[in-house]
Write a structure and sequence with these properties.
Length: about 130
């Protein structure tokens, strides 16, 4: 069982909806252009999801579990998760596009940063700076 914080579960549900809609639009578009784009996007997004889950689990373990010594293990597992789709893309060049995998590999991370930016911006706008 994966243990992540409630806040991150909320963010992950929002990201899944947003990325699902974007994925559906991209897959419909790229299906008619080149099918290898479709499978490259799916491969990159799948591992992007696993990486963000690994990030959430490591965050919870370090902050709430007090397992500060496991930081490097989580870091190495994330590096390993980044390497798997890249190696698959390079090994099967006829079936995957390397740069499409590389771009889609960072989808969840970019959306997470954007989501947190706009949440923080809303909090700042609600604050009263006049005292």
């Amino acid at each position: 069982m994966i243990v992540i914080s409630r806040n991150f579960k909320f963010i992950l549900n929002k990201l899944n909806c947003l990325i699902g809609i974007e994925l559906l639009c991209c897959l419909c578009l790229f299906y008619f252009i080149d099918f290898s784009y479709v499978i490259s996007i799916i491969l990159g997004l799948f591992f992007s999801f696993l990486i963000i889950l690994d990030f959430a689990v490591s965050e919870y373990a370090i902050l709430h579990g007090g397992k500060k010594g496991a930081f490097f293990l989580f870091y190495l597992s994330r590096l390993f998760l980044y390497a798997i789709p890249l190696v698959v893309g390079l090994f099967f060049k006829n079936y995957f596009h390397f740069f499409v995998i590389l771009i889609s590999l960072f989808t969840y991370q970019v959306h997470y940063i954007g989501f947190e930016f706009f949440r923080s911006l809303k909090k700042i706008k609600r604050q009263d700076f006049n005292g």
